[in-house]
Amino acid sequence: MLPLANRNDKQMANVTPFLNALIRKSRYKQQDSSRARGDKDHRSWLWPSHFRLISRVPQRQRTLVGFLIAGLLFYGVFWLAYQQIDENLYVNRDDAIITVSHARNFVEYGSIGVNPSGERVEGYSSPLQFWTFSGAYALTRLHYDLYFRIVAGLSAFVMGLLLFALCLPHRKLGLALVPLAAFALTRDLSFFEWHASGMENALTHMFFLLAVVLLLRMTTEHKLNYWYALPLFAAAIVRIESIYHIGPLLAIFVVFWLLSHRQLRCRESARDQGRPAPSFPRTWESRTRWGALIRTKLDPRVRGDDALLSRSGRECLRGFAFPGLVLALWAVFFGVRWYYFGAIFPNTAAAQGISIGDRVGMFLDGNTAYLKQSWGLTKNLFYWHHGMLLLPIFVCLPLLRFTRKTVLAILLLLSLCFTGLFSPFLFGAARLDITRLSTQVALAIVALAAVVIVHTRRPRYRLLTMPLMLVCVSGLLYWSHAKWEHKPYYLWFSEDVFAKFRNELVGLREKHDIPRPTLANPDLGLMSWHKDFNIVDMGYLGNPVLTKLDAVHDEAKRDIANYFFDIAAPDLIELHGIWSERHAHLFKDPRFRENYAAARTTIDGLLRKRFTRSATFRAEYGEYVRAGYWVRRDMMADSDSWERKLVDDLREVLSIERLEQELKRCEEATLTPVQSFYVVRSAYRFIPEFVQHGLYSDLVALLDRYQPKLGYSTALLRARSNRNWHNELVDFVEAYSPERIRDRMEREFEESFFSHVSVHPEEHPTPSFPQMWESRTRQKPPATELDPRVRGDDGLLLDSGGEHLPSRSDDKEDPNREIIAGLNLLDCRLTPTEKGWGKLQLLFDCDRPIEKDWKIYVHATVPEEKRDRLPKRLQKLGFINWDFGFPDPPTSQWHTYQRIVLTQYVPYGTDVESIRVGLYRPGEGALGKPAVLSIAKFD
Q1: pTM to 2 decimal places
Q2: N or C: which end of the chain has fewer CB within 10 A?
Q3: Residue partners of 868: CB distance under 8 A and separation at least 6
Q4: How far is 605 from 502, CA to CA, in rounded Å?
């Protein structure tokens, strides 16, 4: 028989199984002899000898029992701690109800949003919370309070299981550390209270820790499980930005997968050559270059063995396949979100002013204020979430046994700590509580402490590690609580606060008998949960239109006011506190007092302090800022408005014909797009009923048919199926805002009333359209500086090119043709455009405000010899009716010393010798005297 040292590889292959069996047999004999002598196992120093009954249970069953006990212990500690805190401090926060309100809307009305009428909006930041509650509500119709309690309790139980998994194979020590970890987490009151608040924090804690355990399991076992990609994907969508925390975990996993695979190859190569297998630290530190993976001197099996080489390549690719699968699921999810909502980031990011690109730019530019603010937030998070515990953890690192599992667990948990602590640099401060978005840091630090205690190099070192850790933790927690005054605190607003507001709003709805009223309110959660209001969210989270219109400059405020009063026109308004201050410009708008009646108003306590402390604030807003409730006059019970009549009729009988009748009336009254928008609002109010009765497509088709005639927007009706509805509505608001109308008038004035007039520059300066839409302080320009064509100089009224013919006045005493005091008709133009049609333009000069909205009538007089060409009904009158109806903008918005250009296309099939222009209102008759202008004949 040859000595073992002289045998070749083939001969050793036959001997190796025999040697392994012999070694195992001798090891078992040594264990049996030690038990016979009564020697105690060094691993059972924490396990009393009288628990022999449990020791007889098979190892697998003991591990399962340990998991169950660990989960119950962790849950029990949390439950006992919650009994010591008043529930009103943390249970059922209103912002948590926002997410589940979206889910209920999706289940009951088929669109992701907050309103029963169904416009799409992503007013939440936790997709996982949305989808889990959507499934639970679709199956059981459970209330959000029960759902929040189930999630908080279940996640606490699972966290106990996961912490126990990190402590394996030391089951006994793990069972001792799990309740200690739970107790340490209850001392972080930010973590503890937000965990049970109903927000997504409970899911964040559970899935982030689950991601660490699953990645650790796959790396240590050298076996990929692609089903684990689902919980990793769930962790990546706990919040919109969660990939910021999960991405580094996947990167660490890829590196360790490659290193672990290389270590296995080195061990197999050493075993084949009869050399001792290298340990993990030596292999990890000594061969770090990527080129070593394919170098022939590392693994002799690679030389000439294509099968082994291809297998090695496949294993490396598998290390990238799992993170690739997770990222692919995440990318598909975001693609579906973009397809549905039309945006990558939710409306909550824009509403809160969060821009990752801007913050990255400030970081690269070294913005001092940005760096100072972000670093201050990071320091607060460090102290709040047990960051001081990292110091004894780093001190104890030299005592650890650095196995693959130990190093990977430490790196994964440290990654969660650092991404959480430095998140303010990328996302800024959280809206509700600066510590809310980083509560997982406390869990990662406590889990890291447990890993350090369990994986000490020798059991007797734990006698040093555990007391050191406990003493440091106790001292640091005492110092931190004394310095930062950590005590139970109120987590923003709960549902109880808004229940009072809702009860009063429900009373107003019943008092005025308004079916599904539109409510303007800054608190979206509880108000939108019950689905009996359509919400105009003044907090902007659930209203992308206001988010896009919002800005600090005055023009944006005017656009918001135009949208609020002319488009949204909420039936009920409730404002309070800082929201009344933020929307103070709405109170100052004259349309507020004209359109809304106060149900109950007070001066809010917060605003009262501002009144007393700030003279500037009191001088600017003190007269207007209020807290209370308002009702729109047109929707009050005793209102006889067209909108109230239409809403009442549709409530009685849901009829497409009734809507068509109203649209025809708007067309006959020649209403402007903004004035006829009430028909769209009324139809929007009953969209769920139209969908239920199968009339939704007919409704949209009807309003689309009348849209070109009346000029309104149907974006609100299509909001349940159109992802760009808010952009279209914003474009409509901006197109019909007074500022855009002013620009349009200026352009038309320059094109029609000046460019085609022959004026000698040296005698008459170029007239310009006065920019007086907003200014009421300028002096009226003298007559010589007005348009020279209105001075009665016929020489100046000659047409230069024959395209436009000016009016001629026979009234020598009134060259400005005054209609009422302060309103003059300066000029008119009638231009043939196509066969049978002409473009009529009127130029007014307004010297003083006009109190009401008046219609403008235009009577075109036909010569007597040609009246027989008119229809029989017009032959007796002798004129053609070219009424403008209510002009755009309305006459009540014409300001002092402002020139107004009105344009309308009129049927023109015969000669017109003069026109008569005046003001009137249905039921009130004409106002003032009409202005009569003679018009030259067209060739």
Answers
A1: 0.73
A2: N
A3: 875
A4: 20
